[in-house]
């Protein structure tokens, strides 16, 4: 099996059993990719192309959340989360009982 891999992916691509793996991901690996499959055995077949979008996320540390009871209201604060672009949101869930 012959595979042509661009320089920036050499040593990080694994190919086999109808699968392609990209290892050691970086945030900059996010984007649109195209896989070209050219089957040369058993007669001529046109190449098959598959496009896919890869989105790489970095791990985010568990947030430290504090609450403060203010009568009928509760104040929630988030501290000590590590990551380059961390966004938190809050939502009200129905009671568990």
From TrEMBL:
Alphabetical list of Gene3D superfamilies matching this protein: Immunoglobulins (2.60.40.10)
Lineage summary: Eukaryota, Metazoa, Chordata, Craniata, Vertebrata
Cellular location(s): Membrane
SUPFAM superfamilies (UniProt xref): Immunoglobulin
Top-rank taxon: Eukaryota
Organism annotation: Synaphobranchus kaupii (Kaup's arrowtooth eel)
Glycoprotein in keyword set: yes
Protein's recorded name: Ig-like domain-containing protein
Keywords per UniProt: Glycoprotein, Membrane, Signal
GO cellular component labels: membrane
């Amino acid at each position: 099996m012959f595979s042509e891999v661009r320089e920036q992916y050499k040593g990080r691509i694994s190919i086999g059993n109808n699968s392609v793996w990209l290892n050691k991901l970086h945030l900059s690996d996010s984007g649109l990719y195209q896989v070209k499959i050219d089957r040369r055995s058993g007669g001529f077949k046109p190449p098959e192309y598959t496009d896919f979008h890869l989105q790489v996320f970095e791990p985010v540390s568990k947030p430290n959340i504090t609450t403060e009871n203010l009568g009928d209201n509760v104040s929630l604060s988030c501290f000590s989360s590590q990551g380059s672009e961390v966004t938190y949101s809050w939502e009200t869930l129905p009671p568990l009982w």
